[in-house]
Amino acid sequence: MNILLINPGMGDENKAKAFIKARVPFSEKLKKHATVLPGFVLKRVLSGFGASEKRFPIGLGYLASMLKKQGHSVSLIDRYARPGEWCGVDGFDFIGIYCSTPGFDDALRVISKITEDGFKGGIAVGGPHASLFPDTIPESVDYVVQGEGEYVINAIVEGEFEAGTIVRTPRIKDLDVLPRPDYDLFFEKERDYQYGFEFSDAYPVFNMNTSRSCPYNCSFCSVRDIWGRLWTSHSAERIVEDILFLRDRFGVEGIYFREDLFSAGKKRVEDLCEQIKRYCPGISWACETRADLACEEGLVEKMADAGCAGFFIGAESGSQHMLDVFNKNVEVETIAGACRTAKKYGIKIAMSLILGHPEETVKDRLATWKFVRHTMPEFVYLNLYRDEYTRHGSVGYKTYPERKVVYASYENGTWAGQKDRKCGL
Question: Which of 76, 254, 281, 364 has the fewest CB atoms lying closer than 10 Å?
């Protein structure tokens, strides 16, 4: 069968405003929240984290590998990397659409285009938005997938599930069993992907996703609503195997570990550092981490020695009051300590801050700018509080009648650790 996978682009600005981050020059709305913004901070601000940075849709790469193992042919439309891209639906037997909330407006446009083009095959929608808000998926979609889709995608494509259903999946226990994402899929045509990063001059830099979920419970984050508490990961050996493949196949010089919490498993990070030094010397890499995990000097030294060039740290605020409001479970001084330790070993810091929370005061903002001046991160991301899309809010889209829920099962799956997961049992 010929399968088309689609990665929608950003929605219109009104719907996606909560995800549009600070840009240079600042919007008037951001200025209102960024009172007394120091000039040196202004010079360090990058465009919004996740809103404009275009990396490979690795999740679709995993699905493509699973489909190709079964003998299916797979093509990709990436409207995030190529806004407005469309090839029509002729010649395809099935269409799978990745759906995040900031891309949901474009996903709706894509679904309308598919209908207008007279597509007669099956349609499946998965991704974070589908997991959290399945009732907003139009009835023309045959399958809504809640959870990880690797072990159900072939069964869905081949008609083993009843159309008009929600297919709810358990968590995958062992990620090492999954095939490598199909990176060739991303190079079928020229796309505006980003192949560098701000932490070093390494080029090309590929992104990897080597773990899933996060055991923490920050108030503004929906990760646990989607995944539950169970944190899973590739082993250090599997990660290095994939890096070696990417180096040999594409000549990569850098890796950006883009995932919810790369450093949740300290032993895995230590093992990975040893493996990279042994088998991938010269590879530059960066990861996303919490401050309390990035202030352990022995671990940070090992990471730097193994080529780590950057930490993306979600500091969120320099006010302890706001950190408590965000349920960060971390002290301001701990974040400052992480920055000092990183600088000591030559690791650059990209710091993410949240502005505009209803409980944030001018005093809190002043404390944040003072904190930034004190810690001096190399890069700062400013994010407006995502009030419209918080886990306690609503998305305000049209809803549709409830679908029948079908629970998938597979040997490499588990329903353990699903507390807080909205699409759990």
Answer: 281
Compute the distance between CA of residue 353 and CA of residue 385 in angstroms, rounded to an integer: 9
Ranges of the chain whose pLDDT falls below 50: 12-28, 47-50, 388-393
- Over residues 112-141, the pLDDT tens digits come to 999 999 999 999 999 999 999 999 999 999
In which element (H, E) is residue 351 found? strand 348-355
Q: Is 402 exposed, middle or buried (0-12, 13-18, 19+ CB in 10 A)?
A: exposed
Cα separation, 103 vs 100, in Å, equals: 5
Q: Exposed, middle or buried, 192 (CB in 10 Å: 0-12/13-18/19+)? A: exposed
**Helices then strands (H, E): number in the chain?**
14, 17
2-12+57-171+395-412 belongs to which CATH class? alpha beta
Separation between Cα atoms, residue 156 and residue 414, nearest integer Å: 20
pTM confidence score: 0.91
Q: For 282-313, how does the pLDDT look when each residue is reduced to its tens digit (9 = 90+)? A: 999 999 999 988 889 999 999 999 999 999 99
CATH classification of 19-54+177-389 is 3.80.30.20, yes or no? yes
The CA distances from residue 209 to 175, 194, 258, in Å, are: 11, 16, 6
Answer for the pair 246, 263: CB distance below 8 angstroms, yes or no: no
Residue range(s) of every CATH 3.80.30.20 domain in the chain: 19-54+177-389
CB atoms within 10 A of CB 118: 8
Structure tokens at 192: 């505006």
Q: Residues 377, 339: contact at Cβ < 8 Å?
A: yes
Residue ranges matching CATH 3.40.50 in the chain:
2-12+57-171+395-412
Beta bridge mates, 143: 124, 165
- Lookup result for tokens 């297919």: 167
CA distance 113 to 393: 29
